[in-house]
Amino acid sequence: MNLYTKTGDKGKTSIIGGRVDKDDLRVEAYGTIDELNSFVGQAIVLLEDDLFKDIYNELRKIQHELFDCGGDLAVIKEKYPYKTTEEMIEFLEERIDAYVKEAPDLEKFILPGGSHAAAVIHIARTVTRRAERCTVSLQKETSINEIVLKYLNRLSDYFFAVSRVINFRLGIKDIEYERSALVFKTKKSE
């Protein structure tokens, strides 16, 4: 099998249903999701400890779901059976709720970082937001599987919650942004 086909040498690439320029918004959106998937893979390598078995398994699941999202965005024919589903979003919401309960209360914005794994998850979170922005731009030009956009929105929240839990389990405190106002309700104040 050859890894190179030479069909993209003039700035075009194949997608499901045709060919487009390599700088097409569709390619930018699913390419950013591919970049995100690589950061998730890096985080997985850093979380092979039993302390993080749940997160490790979830991230592996998310990698497959990111391929689904990218595939759904790579479609220019509307009759393609989409793979990204509402059930994927419901799973993320369940996990976010569980991780918010596990982590300490949060009142202020925090700086990305802490442990190496949490820092990589924060990178994944910000790349997710970029993928979301690219997908919004794409949606303004053409019809897409709108569930992908919703999934990306929820995924960035998931990554935020997971980064905090990773640090918490390692005994590393979040570093609050020193000029932050009180922006989050604590569990105690509800």
TrEMBL record:
Catalytically driven reaction(s): 2 cob(II)alamin + reduced [electron-transfer flavoprotein] + 2 ATP = 2 adenosylcob(III)alamin + 2 triphosphate + oxidized [electron-transfer flavoprotein] + 3 H(+); 2 cob(II)yrinate a,c diamide + reduced [electron-transfer flavoprotein] + 2 ATP = 2 adenosylcob(III)yrinate a,c-diamide + 2 triphosphate + oxidized [electron-transfer flavoprotein] + 3 H(+)
Domain of life: Bacteria
EC code(s) of this entry: 2.5.1.17
Keywords tagged on the record: ATP-binding, Cobalamin biosynthesis, Nucleotide-binding, Transferase
Domain Cobalamin adenosyltransferase-like: 3-165
InterPro entries (alphabetical): CblAdoTrfase-like, CblAdoTrfase-like_sf, PduO-typ
Transmembrane regions listed in the UniProt entry: none
Any Pfam family hit: Cob_adeno_trans
Coiled coil residues, start to end: none
Pathway(s) the chain acts in: Cofactor biosynthesis; adenosylcobalamin biosynthesis; adenosylcobalamin from cob(II)yrinate a,c-diamide: step 2/7
EC top class, as a word: transferase
Gene Ontology terms for molecular function: corrinoid adenosyltransferase activity
Annotated family: Belongs to the Cob(I)alamin adenosyltransferase family.
Name of this protein: Corrinoid adenosyltransferase
Organism in which the protein naturally occurs: Metabacillus fastidiosus
